[in-house]
Amino acid sequence: MNTVDDIVSADGRFRAEFVRREDGTHGYVSFINTNNAASPVWKQDWRDVSRFESRDIALFEATGRLAWLKKEADWPAKDHEPIAASQYTPGWIKCPFCGLRFYLADPDRWGGSRHLTCGQRIIDTGHS
Ligand SMILES: [Zn+2]
C-alpha cells in the first residue's frame, strides 16, 4: 500500500490517509486524534474500509462520508490568502472574511490559524 495523500483537519482532530493498493485500487483510511493537536496520537477508525477505482473517486466518497472533510471542502474561504486581524477585545477576533466574532479559546471556531466556520486563514496580531 502506498500513501498518496494525507489530509489533516484544520483543528487537528481528524485525518484521512489516501492509499493506492498493489492491485491498483484506491481507498482511504480515517483516523481520530485521541490526544491533542500539538502531539497527535492517531487511532484508526475501522468503520471506514473502502475500495475505489481511482484517487478522485476515493476523495469524492470520503468527502461524502466524513463530516469534517465535507465541512472543510465547503468552506467558502478555504483557498484564500491569510488576512491579518487584531483582537478587538482580548481573546476575541472578528473574522475579516465572514464578519463573525469568535472567541479564540473556542476549539469549534478557531483552529490556531483558521476560522473554522468559513475556513479563512487569519494572522492573529493580538490586542492593540
Ligand atoms: Zn470567518
Describe the SSE topology.
Layout: E1 2-8, E2 14-20, E3 26-33, E4 42-45, H1 55-65, H2 67-73, E5 83-89, E6 92-94, E7 101-103, E8 122-127
Parallel strand pairs: 5-8
Antiparallel strand pairs: 1-2, 2-3, 3-4, 5-6, 6-7
Helix pairs in contact: 1-2
The chain binds zinc ion.
Residues 95, 97-98, 100, 115, 117-118, 120 line the site of zinc ion (ZN).
Detailed description of the structure:
By secondary structure, this protein is α+β, with helices and mostly antiparallel strands. It folds into two domains: 2-73; 83-127, no CATH class. It has two helices and eight strands, in the order E-E-E-E-H-H-E-E-E-E. The strands form two sheets. Strands 1-2-3-4 form a four-stranded antiparallel beta sheet. The protein has a four-stranded mixed beta sheet with strand order 7-6-5-8, with no helix packed on it. Helix 1 packs across helix 2 (67-73). The radius of gyration is 17 Å and the shape is elongated. 20% of the residues are buried. The mean pLDDT is 93. The structure holds zinc ion.
- Give the bound compounds: zinc ion
- Largest sheet, described in full? 4 strands, antiparallel
Give the strand order of the largest sheet, numbering strands 1, 2, ... along the chain.
1-2-3-4
Number of E-type strands? 8
Give a brief outline of the structure.
This protein has two domains: 2-73; 83-127, no CATH class. The protein is 14% helix and 35% strand. The protein is built from two helices and eight strands.
